[in-house]
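Sharing a chain and its predicted structure for anyone who wants a worked example. Both blocks are below, sequence first, tokens second.
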Amino acid sequence: MKALLLTLSLMLLSVAMVFGGLNVLMAASEIEGYQTTIVNALSGFSDFDSVDWWNMQTLGQPDLSDIEAYDCVVTWSNYQFPDATGWGNTLADYVDGGGRVVLCCFCWNDGWGIGGGILTDGYSPFTGNTGDHYSGASWELTSPDIPGHPFLTDVDTVASGYRDYVTLAAWGILVTHYQGDSEEALGVNEDNTVAAINVYPGQAGGGLDWTGDVPQCMRNVIVDMCYTGIQPTSLGTVKAMFK
């Protein structure tokens, strides 16, 4: 009987582990408070067990040991990164270790952007570092570059005035672009491990802030990337099926 109870306990523990959600870190160089809307919105999705916030302006820049327990890191810069090259190297090492990264505006901005390994071959799907538009535009969602892409599930409208001038990297896959000027809006690398959302996630209180389904898109991106590469026989597949 004791053996049976032990077996049942282990089975229940395994089920709890399988159906656990993802853990996300949003790490940015930001004015405290501007992140509240996107952090709260992302926290509202049942896919995530935790959505933690790390402001580099007050806490300093995370090391690899600070982020490696997370499934995904989302990052952007409203201030300059304390060490842009070091942060890019840390994120590349994190991806090499199995992590997933979402880069947002102003990571490709001249003087404010990220550097290091995350911009080298195979990582960030966008490159640039040439400045910003500072003009409002909407994503092309009626005829995106890849119709039916999982990143766009339940994403009906997205508009933003804060967006970087970027270029699609040779290893980048463009999911959709902005209407009008055709600026790259959403992309991912060939390994589905680093995504680019060319929107400033913060809310600064002006007319250039994002509107629409940015939280839904970010949720889609994180979930899709984190469940890429799961082996058909693994418990992770069962976990993914119930998301």
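Comments welcome. The chain has one domain: 22-241.
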